[in-house]
Records
---
Amino acid sequence: MGSGAWGAGRARPCGRGPGPLSPVSPAWRGRSAPAMGLELYLDLLSQPCRAVYIFAKKNRIPFELRTVDLRKGQHLSDAFAQVNPLQKVPVLKDGDFVLTESVAILLYLARKYKVPDHWYPQDPQACARVDEYLAWQHTALRRNCLRALWHKVMLPVFLGELVSPETLAATLAELDVALQVLEGKFLQDKAFLTGPHVSLADLVAITELMHPVGAGCQVFKGRPKLAAWRQRVEAAVGEALFQEAHEVILKAKDSQPADPTLKQKMLPKVLAMIQ
Amino acid sequence: MGLELYLDLLSASCRAVYIFARKNSIPFDFQFVDLLKGHHHSREYIEINPLRKLPSLRDGKFILSESVAILFYLCRKYSTPSHWYPPDLHMRARVDEFMAWQHTAIQLPMNKILWLKLLIPMITGDEVPAEKTEQMLAEVKSNLKLFEEKFLQDKMFITGDNISLADLVALVEMMQPMASNHNVFLSSAKLAEWRMRVELAIGSSLFCEAHDRLVKLAEWDCSTLDPMVKERIGNLLQKFK
């Protein structure tokens, strides 16, 4: 495990213990509450990480960013397994409390930092609408956006695996269906997915859609309603923050091919993830 | 018109909602939408849920889908005992974490066992290649191990000393393969003991009643299956093969 593992350029030392970040012992390792504030283990290549990142930044929630470079296989390291045995991002660490699953993390942050009500409304019916979207998307839009990125770009470019035109076409067709549901069932004629104000549902949805966008899919073409909604969500989040969070995914096709050892490690897991 | 719940207890998601409502004495009209007869594709039901899935809730003009959303809604509206969805930030987050994880880690694979071991052979007359079934069972085994190590650990229930929505959802989903004679609790004493605790906390008679239709599924005469429904199932099955 090298010193670069936790994005040494970005993780800031907490100022306690044996001194500045040493090459052998990253600042977060072996620490427990209350030395550290909130830590978020993220790679902005990942959709759920983008939602968590944007939400935390937008609401000025102070956190230490711990970059876990997925394309270097850092999520598969023994060190990261100490943080999350499920070997996935995002992960939240708040003292001794470790939390996975972006939806759970978003809700935790919303409650702990008492963010504006519109993100996750108190009103039971408005709240239910957000819950409904957040539940639906796991096996629907999320899955389709992930497959679109991997089938179109990441499998061929990063892992050197050919994807047949038929497979890609089928994936894009499924994405199309999910987009129709997004527009027809969730958005309809409203300003945002669950009502007149931006909520966690919109944030989770938009970050998902940027996955196929990063893969070069024109998801907003021929969908003026969805395109208009996108503009509104970007404006609500803040354009600068939105651009910043999406820099990495928009360069996905420039990914460096994985070396054979890493490819061997990652391929079965990727295939399981996108099935 | 009071609360209506559109359900077929063959579905784990429906059982979770049903058990929760009954356990908390929430008054509702049980609107049976027979999955085996394809009634989720009926014009009447499509008006309730165009995605044609169960369960759905209707509360006056308010219609809601997704069992997780429905469970949270019922908790809040009927002010159910707090252990179901604890107010403590960390405990609540644990429930949320499980509810998010289970969609792909538990619900999907548990359903797959049912399809591979019972429904596909029953409906199509085809056996599923043993290799596919083995692969599926291995995935389930590994996820159940994760469930024990990460969510249950050495606690009585997922959030600690009391049952919550997470235990309810987990258990009804793990019951799904029972209809194909596959008992996931046999492989782990810890899991079996947790199951007994959850059943007791719910009440054995309510639990058994909720699972009656599921455990009798093997007796279903699928020759009466509507050809259109059979075709739809055929298309769905391609995903599993």
---
Amino acid sequence: MCPLTEEETRVMFEKITKYIWENLQLLVDRPIGTYYFRLHNDRVCYVSEKMLKLAANISGDKLVSLGTCFGKFTKTHKFRLHIMALDHLAPYVKYKVWIKPGAEQSFPYGNHVLKSGLGRITENTSQYQGVVVYSMADIPLGFGVAVKSTQDCRKVDPMAIVVIHQAGFGEYIRHEETLT
Amino acid sequence: MGRKLDPTKEKRGPGRKARKQRGAETELARFLPAAGDENSKRLSSRARKRAAKRRLGSVEASKTNESLGTKPSPGKLPKEAVQTPGKKGTQALFNAARDKKHPVPAHSSDEEEDSEDDGTVEQRDLWGSEDSDADMVDDYGVDSDSEEADGEELLPIERAAQKQKAWEAAAGAQWSEEETDEEDEEGMSPESGPTKDEAEGGLQINVDEEEFVLPPAGELDLDAQAPDLQRVHKRIQDIVGVLRDFGAQREEGRSRPEYLGRLQKDLATYYSYGDFLLGKLVELFPAPELIEFLEANEVPRPITLRTNTLKTRRRDLAQALINRGVNLDPLGKWSKTGLVVYDSSVPIGATPEYLAGHYMLQGASSMLPVMALAPQEHEWILDMCCAPGGKTSYIAQLMKNTGVILANDANAERLKSVVGNLHRLGVTNAIISHYDGRQFPKVVGGFDRVLLDAPCSGTGIISKDPAVKTNKDEKDVLRCAHLQKELLLSAIDSVNATSKTGGYLVYCTCSVMVEENEWVVDYALKKRSVRLVPTGLDFGQEGFTRFRERRFHPTLRSTRRFYPHTHNMDGFFIAKFKKFSNSIPQAGTGNSATGTSTDLDSPDLKGQIPPKSENSSQPAKKAKVATEAKQPLQKRQRSNKASFQKLNGVSKGAESELCTVPSITKVQASSRLQGSSKLPGKADVTREPKMTGKLKKLRFSKKAASPRQSALFKGRDTGTPAVQPLSETQATPRLKDRGQTLGKAKGAGKAKQQFPEEPGKKAKFQDSGTPEGPQVPTQVPTVTPRRSGRPPPAKRRKGASQQLF
């Protein structure tokens, strides 16, 4: 377990910034204490200071997971955001999409959101903006990327995809093996 | 909309509905038991007359039966489903009644009854005793009435039962009929029949057998080939009935163990258990409770879930799930986050609320250890066997994501589910590791609280995993017990006793076996500086303090057992320890002095005893310490100071037993045992250096109570003077020999003594080179009586242990 390198930090923050924009600092300096990002076996873990102390005693090969795993670096050093980051990022994300109950059933399966399933969308969402997908009951379901801006969403036909599925909580069941 | 259903209400009167429509009420009435009770219903005039005739008829029937002797009653309707010619009368009736399942014959019988007035004499004859309502004149020629009348009349089975009773009363002596062929393997004793009959006349349900006769041993083979489960089940019930009132109902010449043996085999057959496991269960439960337990294991426990208070509240979650179509209720008064699911139209493990981490599917009994552990915020918690993560997440939610939890499991695949669950539920303060739990204090120690949900044989969760019934045997249970002991010791060592808010350990298993529960806990009490404290759970059965030939520590009463048949949750065992000292007592010989479980203790203890002849009687001391709850702690602390001074004073002596005394006191206080010697820990206990060689007589080796020692501990030396001088002479040379080691050890010991005072988180205490001085067993007066108090009860009161009957 080691701290992230400059390069990795940059890549990761770029990705996260797509979602939470300028609120990035809030992630690091939390009122409870300072949180750090640590790299462990290609996974980025978000941990508090106290945890680091305890985790230092555990040898690397025996350590499975630490704090919250935000995502992992692929072999080509791109950062892939995981669903487990949802709880941390959701409060800070500016652009949100609410989907109808029907789409709520299909989104966890990895399907994209169609216009027919779209309930609400934040104003001024630009194209290819990272969004968090919510259910109508304000439960965060996952991450997505808006393929149409808000204005375009109004015009487009019901079968068109409006949000691409990036990470959804269905992965807890479907991809349990790859979570660690 | 629709009319109210009132099965007892009769439709009377000349109206159309009264006659034609039977309706739900009467349909139901046919199946309701109350429907058959003539006396409770308001009968129509016809019905009353018919009833009167029946009563009359039954009396006649009994008379006719008597005259007929054992000839099968002519009461065999051709339309009756089962008529076995040659069967005795009651048998026929019973069979007829029993086998009649649907109302069609009832119909027919009714119609017959009604139509007999039409002059069908032959049917009446066939009915015979059953229905000698030949003179019934109540037929007003309305066939439709028969349908209605059906509801008012007795069901055929009730008729049969009535006839039975009448017949029995009249022909008591004719009860020579054996029980059914199912039970009858060999000759019955007819004479005992009536007595049994009358004895439980009130409870008589199986009317046709007056006595249960135990089949001889040879008959067992019959069952092995093709067990007739009905028969076996019946026999089980019979045996239990006999055993309940053994004196009165036993068969002559058959002993209780025979009945018990037979019961055990039948239970094994009926419920598909292996012999070993059933034998263990028979030891645990009395027979009626055993059957309840076995029955409960056939049925799954209700699905329960736990609200994740990190993300939602129970009320909101319940509302959301109800909206999805789940039928649920709060779990009980004892849980603020539990919900029990009765049924659900959506898969409960895949709702959006589940995926969003609002709840976790968890057994009710799995919530209890965490409640017992009561983790506080900002603590460091270790969960040694955490998979699949239910308890870990519960701990995290109780701590509100503060502090740190180290979730460990030895099984890599199951760890994946831990990761998934913890992330899903939004637990941020967990570190997940993949160690063998036994490595623990070495890797990291000094936790505030530790939860050990030890791997076990799973005898409490048979309803979830029926394979346990047959694939567990003695080896498995002992292996589990051994592993659990090791894990428990490691867990204890990982707790920091000086923690400000903690110092607690919860040990739990999902097993009901004493070998894995009380025995392991008792072992830990002897080996480590821990004591049992109340779990905080106000329900559940107390753990055993004695079981068969074993005797456990009395504080085991504070542990809790849960059973599927009493609490409707998986079988579970929970014990909560408080660690009061960070030092690890040396393993050793003292255990033999502690008596009761000597021979039953794990073999490794005995193995240690011979080689480590110098082993202190630390365990013995610890046992004593443990036995005396809080009191010794204070005393020890006091004596600790005193002894420390003494130590300083006499350390120069280095060879007398006195030197060893303080060192032992130190150890008692909480440091490594350096040498052995008297332990002034308790005012009432004096310890004396023990002969190293005489390990087996630890109990009696209050030797070497030197005059110096006695001078030091005046008033406390109540030892056996006779023994002392002898051992003293023997001891002193040894002690002298060890003077060096003792001195060194003491030095080290002193240094060590600083250790416990450190509030350090590192609770690792290496063994300081085993300074083996002569051990100090306990003194006769207080210790031995206590000690000796333990084994003798085992010998004396053989029957006092947990018994079935």
